[in-house]
Fold:
Amino acid sequence: MGKRVICSIALKNILRHPGKNLLLGIMVFLSTSVFLFTASIIDNSRKSWRQFFSETTTGYINVSTFVGKGRDMTSPDFDFPKSVIPKELTDYLNKNKIPHVKRIRLGGVKYDFEKQKFDGENDTCNIIGTDFPSELKNLKNLRITEGAYEPDVANGAVVWRKIMTRFNLKIGDEISYFINDSSGMPMPYTFVITGVCENISGNNLEVEADNTSNPLVFVKDDFLADKLGLENGEYTEASIWPSSDEQINYIKDVSLKYKLNYYFADEAYEIITGITDFISFLGKFVAALIIIIFIVAAFNINIIGFIDRQKEIATMLSIGSSPVWIISLLFLEMIIFSMFAFLLSTTVYALSGIVMHSGISFGELGILFSDRNFFFSLIPQALITSFVCVCTAMALSAVYPAYLTLKMNPSEVFREGDL
Amino acid sequence: MIRIKNISKKYTLGKTEIHALRGVNLSVNEGQMICVMGPSGSGKSTMLNIIGCLDKPDSGDVFIGKYSVAGLGRNDLAALRADMIGFIFQSFNLIPVLNVYENIEFPLHIKNSGLTKKEMQRRVMRLVDEVGLNEYVKHRPDELSGGQRQRVAIARALVTNPKIILADEPTANLDSATAKSILSIMKTLNHEEKSTFIFSTHDPSIAEYSDSVCRMKDGLLLESAGK
Structure:
C-alpha cells in the first residue's frame, strides 16, 4: 500500500479522536515542558555559577598541578605541588593569545606573632601569587574596594574582605601565614595589606558563607616564587578564559597528558558543585519520572483507544490488510501525533521564553543561579532528548495494541460485538 | 470453487462449551449464489468466517480454489482474503474516517492491484454507479442511512473482483424494502461479475434470491437444496 494512503489514514484517525488526542497532547505538552524547563534549570545553574566564578576567582577553566583535593578551592592544599605547569600548555596559551593568568597557589595558616599563636579554627586561606593587574583584567567581577594594589611593595597583599572583617585588620597592617615551601618545611611569611577586594555583584559567597577556606589573599607572583624556590617563571596553576570548544578540548588533552587537575569554574567549590549536582540529579529524576508517568498515561489512553477501534481493525484484517500493515498504521499515528504535539509544545515553551525574556527572579532560591535571573533556554541536546523520549514513549505505548493486533481474531471481535 | 470437508468448531463462553459446527461438509461451485439459513446460534456466521479465512476450524479443512486454508499462515491468509474474498457484514463495518469513495477504493490499495490512479477511479466510480451512490461519494459513513452503508459495503466487497463474496446477514439491520433492493443489487452483480456469493439469513423471504439454500441447526448442515 502506498505511503500516501497510510499517511492519509493515519492523519484522519488522529483528527477523528479529539478527546483522546487532547489528553495525549496535554501529556506531551506537560512532559516536554517539564523536560525542557528542568534542562533549563540545570543549564542555568551551571552556567550562572560558571560565569560567576569565571569572573570572580578561578578563570573559566582552571588548570593546576595539585593532586587530590587541589581540584577544589574550598579547602586549601598545604603540600607544595611536585610539578609545575608544562611548557607545552604555556606555549599554546601564548601562541593562541588565549587570556590566562599564571598563579602559584598554596594553602596558608594564619599566625599571630604578637600573641605567638595560630588564630584558631578559622585561620586557613588560599594564598595566590599572581600578577594582580592581569587578574583584574579577566576577573571582571572582582574589584579593590579599599586601598590599592602596590607593585612597589614586594610583600604587598590584596586581601579578601572577610579576612579583614574577621581579624579586624586595616590597610597597612601586616598579616602572617605559615606556608609549606617546596621542601615541605612550614615557613612563616609576612605580608603588608595594601588593598581589600570583593565581588562587584552576585552572591558574595565568600563573605556570606561561614566557610573559612574561601577567603583569598593575592600576593605578588615573583615574591612567592622566590620564597618557594620556583625559577624562570614557573607556576603551578593557570586561570584560563578560552574562547572556543577547540581551545577547551586542547587544554583538557594537555591536562590529561601531564596528569594535571582541570576543572570548570562552577566545579571550584564543593558547596556549589553540591548545589549544581543536586539540581542536575533532581532535574534528571523529575524528567525520568515525568517520562514514566507519560508512558503509563499514554499506554492507558492508547489501550482505551484501541478497544474503541477493535472492530475497525478487525474489519481491516477481514478485507485483507496484513497485521504488519495495521501495526505500521498504529505506530505511524503515534509518530505523527508525537511530532505535531512536540512541535506545538516546544513552540509554546519558546514563546514563554520570549515573553519572559528578562528572566525570572527566584527570590531566596536565587542562590541556585548565583543570584541571577532564570532564563528559559532551549538547549539542543535537551530538545533532541525530549523529542526522542516523547517518540519512544508514544511508540512504547503502541506496542501492546500492536501485540493485540497480531493476536487478534476478527471473527471473535465481531462475535463479541454482536453479544 | 469452495470445498468444506468435515469441519468442526467449538467455542468456550465462560464455563460453557458451544459446538458451533459439527462435521459440516459443503461444496460450492463458481458463480453460484448460496443462501445459508438457520436460526441464531445455528453456526451460519462461524461457517462463513471459516470460509472467509477469518477463523480456523478445530478439525477438518477448507479448500478455496487450490488452497488448503489449514496450511496457511496469518500473512498468507491476509493475502488470500485480499485476492479472492470480499466481505459484506451485517453491521456494514465501514471505516469511519474514510468517505464512500475511499472506503470502496481501500481494498484496491491493500491488494496492491497495480492499477493506475485513473483505473482505480474508473473502477470505483463504476461500482458507485451500480449501487446508486453517485451523490454520496464524498459522504462519510456516519452521514449515510443503513441501506446506503450496506451498498457501500457491497461495492467495497466487489471492487477487487474477488471470486467469492461472503455476506453475513447483510439485510438484518435493514427494513424489508431496503433489504430487497440490496439483494437485487447482489443478484445483478452475481450475474454480471460471475462471482460466487454466499450469504446467511434467518429470513425465508430473502432466500428466494439464491440459487441454492443450505439449512443449518445446532452446528449441523441439515440440507442443501438447489432451485
